[in-house]
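Standup notes, structure subgroup. Blocker cleared on the iron/sulfur cluster input:
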Amino acid sequence: MVYSIGESGSVLEKTFILPDGPLLEVDDLHVEFHTRDGVAHAVNGVTYSVDAGETLAVLGESGSGKSVTAQSIMGILDTPPGFVTGGAIRFRGEDLLKMSKKQRQAIRGESIAMIFQDALSALNPVFSVGWQIGEMFRKHRGASRREAKKKAIELMDRVGIPAARKRLGDYPHQFSGGMRQRIMIAMAIALDPGVLIADEPTTALDVTVQAQIMDLLAELQRESNMGLILITHDLGVVADVADKIAVMYGGRIVEEAEVYEAYSAPAHPYTKGLLESIPRVDLKGHELHVVKGSPPNLLNLPSGCSFHPRCRYRQDRCVTESPPLHQVADDRRSACHYWEEVINDR
Ligand code: SF4
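Run returned:
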C-alpha cells in the first residue's frame, strides 16, 4: 500500500498494490443465531466474490441472509446472539475471521465500508455532518482539524451536496432523505475503501431520488474502481448497475449469474418469480405476479429444497433432497434439481 502524506504528517491518500485473485471472497460462510426458541440458521454455506470495479447485487427477501452476510463481512454482527460458525471471509487474500478485533477495526472504513438503508439513524444527530465526515480523517489518518474540514468539503462536493462549505455545520435533520444518504456515502468513501457494501441504500427514498443515488454509486465506483456489493430485494434497482447477481433464499445462494443471463433466462424458480413480480407498463391490465407463500422459518427450515413449499416446479424429490449448487454454465450456478426445465420455460 502506498500513502500520500498531508501537511501535519497525516495520511490523506492511499494506493493499494493488488495481489492476484478476487478482492473480497466469502467462502462457505455459516452464521447462526442462538435464540430462546432454538438455533436460527441464518446463513448456510454462502460463497460469493467481488473484484475491483465489479458490482455484485445480492438479492432476496427479508430474512434470506443477505444483510447478515454483510454484517459478518464488516465484523458488526451482534454476538451473542449471532455467531459465525464456519467458513472464511478473505479480503485481498487474508481471512478476516482469523484477525484480532483490533485488526478488523482497522479494516473497517479503511478497506471495507458500508452504507445502510436508514441514513437518519446511522448518522449521529448531535454532531454536524462536517464534523462526522471529518472525523473519519481525524480518527483514521491523524488529520488536523483544518485538513479534516477541507476533506469534508471535498467529499460533500463529490457526492453532490450543493453549497458544501455553507452546509458543513448543519445537522443530519436539516437535510432531506436523499441528501442524508449522500452524506452517509461521503463518510463511507472517505478513506477510499476497496469494497463498499450498500445495504438497501435506496429503499427509504422516493423513486427519482433512488435513481440519483444509484447513479452516484455507479459514478463513484467508476472513479475509484471499488468493488460494490449492492444488497437489495428489488431486481428493478440493480438491472442497470450490477455486473452479476447472487440470489439468496433461506440463508443459501440459490442462483448466481451475470445479470443479463439471469434476467433473460433465470435458472431458479425463485429468481424467475422475483423477475415476474416486477411491475411492467407493457402488461397493463394483467394481474401482478407474486411469489406466493412466506419466507422459510430459519428455526425450522423445510426439508429438501427449502423453496419447495412455494415452488411451482416442485416434484417429489424436492421434498427430501436438498439440491446442490449446479454449475449451469461458466460463472453461472443454480441450486435447483430442475434448472434446465426452468431455463427453457419462457
Ligand atoms: Fe423448485 Fe425443486 Fe428446484 Fe427447489 S429443487 S426450486 S422445489 S424445482
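Discussed briefly. The chain has 13 helices and 14 strands.
Next: hand off to the docking folks.
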